[in-house]
Every structure is written in structure tokens, then in C-alpha cells.
Description:
Largest sheet of chain B: 5 strands, mixed
Largest sheet of chain A: 7 strands, mixed
Radius of gyration of chain B: 12 Å
Largest interface: A-B, 20 and 22 residues
Distance between the termini of chain B: 29 Å
Helix content of chain B: under 10%
Shape of chain A: globular
Oligomer: heterodimer
Number of strands of chain B: 8
Number of helices of chain A: 0
Amino acid sequence: QVQLVQSGSEFKKPGASVKISCTPSGYTLSSYTMNWVRQAPGKGLDWMGWINTDTGNPTYAQGFTGRFVFSLDSSLRTAHLQISDLETDDTAVYFCARVGDGFFFDVWGQGTLVLVSS
Amino acid sequence: SDLSQPPSVSVFPGQTATIDCSGDNLGERFVCWYHQKAGQSPVLVMFRDSERPSGIPERFSGSNSGNTATLTITGAQALDEGDYYCQAWDSKVFGSGTKVTVL
Lengths: 118, 103
């Protein structure tokens, strides 16, 4: 069964950094591009950008440049989202989502809650 | 978000719910739709305007023309409740979301 497994919830103080992982199961990471989506509490979906899982080249959406970094681990088996200098407004559930064989996100991770509070 | 959706839509069981998604020249862009239940990840229910993924019931249909894409649920059921988001594929931007309530 194809699925994306994300790392667990994170509780951080403002100014800290966090790194979230997204590991495919049932397929090879490099076969499909990976996107990241943020959902603040009670809010809608916010597309953050994507990473080419073949070359490792990231593309960031407006509003997600500077403190946000998409990467792949050296074994090319896991995608990562790192957020530095965390702010309370970064409190959200972060999803990874695979681009399917067409114009859509066909597989989503279960989401990772990042809670930023002093 | 440059895609507008009504905040909420209510429908009686068995009746038809329509959710609009508006954006400039949206009809010229592929649109997909996702359904998200509380506390869960979104699930794709429509892609390339009007194509249903495997496993999505036939009561879901989609269209896209002019500046508006529409998701229609014909014969709504209680399990169709939740939030629905449109997405324009060229920009990847999501709509503002619509909460569907089955009364």
C-alpha cells in the first residue's frame, strides 16, 4: 500500500528550529515529486512549494522563502522540511503530498503538528 | 488565496450540494478538489476538472468553465461532511475552503 509516513509532533520555543521528515512506503521517493502544505489551526490549506526528488532542487511558494528549507536525505529515501527561527505563527500541521500521475496530489502524509510557544 | 469559495454549504441528505470555486480565467486551468474530514489528511475527490479518482463515488462530479469551477455532490450523504478545497494546478494554490454540512 502506497503511503507517506511523517515524523511525530514537535513542541518548540520561538527562535528554535524544527526538521520534519516524510518517508514513502510502497514506492521509491525519486519516482514522484514531493510537495509541502501548511494548515494553521482552524485555517485552510497553504501550498508551501515542492522538491524535485530526482535532483533535490526545491521551489518555494511566495511567503515560504528564507526560513523554510526542503531537502532529501543522502540515501534519497526521505524528504525533509526544516523551519528555522520559529515564530508562534508557524504553529500548524504540515503535510507532505505526492504529485500523482497527473495534475493532482494523490497521496498525503498524516500530517505533523508543530506547536511553537514560549 | 486567489481562489474564492463560499465558507459554508448546507444540504439535506439525498439532495444536491454544489460548491463553486472562482478565479481569473479558471476555466483555462486544470482544477482538482480535495475533501478533508476533521483531524484527517485531505483526500483527492476530483482531478483535471471532472475526472474521479478510483474509489470516489459517482455522486461526485465536477465542471470548469469561464471563471468558475464547480464540484457537485448529487445525493449527499452524512459521510460527505467536511471541508472541500479546490486547487488550480498551474499555481498549486488552494481555494479558501468550503465547509459542507449534511443536515
